[in-house]
Amino acid sequence: MSNLIGLLSRLMLFSITTMLILSCTFSSENEVAEKPVFKCLPCGLDCDKVLYEKEGICKHCEMELVPASTITFKTIEPSAICEYISQHPEVVLLDVRTKEEFEGNTEPDFGTLKNAINIPIQELEANMTSLEQYKNKDIIVFCSHSHRSPRASYMLTQNGFKRVTNMAGGMSVLADSSCKK
User: Fold this and answer.
1) What is the spatial distance between Cα 35 and Cα 53, in angstroms, rounded to a whole number?
2) Hey, which end of the chain has fewer CB within 10 Å, N or C?
3) Sheet containing strand 38-40, strands side by side
4) What pLDDT, in 10s, does the model give residues 93-113?
5) Is 179 domain-assigned?
6) Domain for residue 18, yes or no?
7) Residue 72: which of 159, 134, 168, 169 has the closest Cα?
8) b/e sequence 65-94, b meaning 16+ C-beta within 10 Å
9) What is the pTM of this model?
């Protein structure tokens, strides 16, 4: 009887060892080392869809290439912005252009959105704490041509803001003036 128990114990130990070896082998064979994928910060051009293998600058729009997985903000088309604002009056509108552009003191004057707050992209990092009150609100970020607003949207998401949307194209392509100041 003791021989039978010893044989069963060794057989069980052998089975467990074999299963562990097989599971480790199976896992390592199926684990593919993924290469990091980089994308340019969205600018509204076709290069937004191009994937790169390393960091750098996009050769098409000259935006920074960042890990694709870190681009978590959404994009809204200018044609949908006024309707969105009317349906979501609590949305925070963040204009990241210069004070002069925001106030309409530049040529061309693209105007701004009603109730927008202005924090120029150059001052955004230093003013991040003043935006803390909006951390859990919907925020739409915009500029004149959608070159500064994607960077600002990225900065916000990297600082814990979860509900950030970038307006593609910027104020320069906003045809509907119903939500302009």
Assistant:
1) 7
2) N
3) 38-40, 64-67, 56-57
4) 999 999 999 999 999 999 999
5) no
6) yes
7) 159
8) bbeeeebebebbebeebbebbeeeeebbbb
9) 0.76
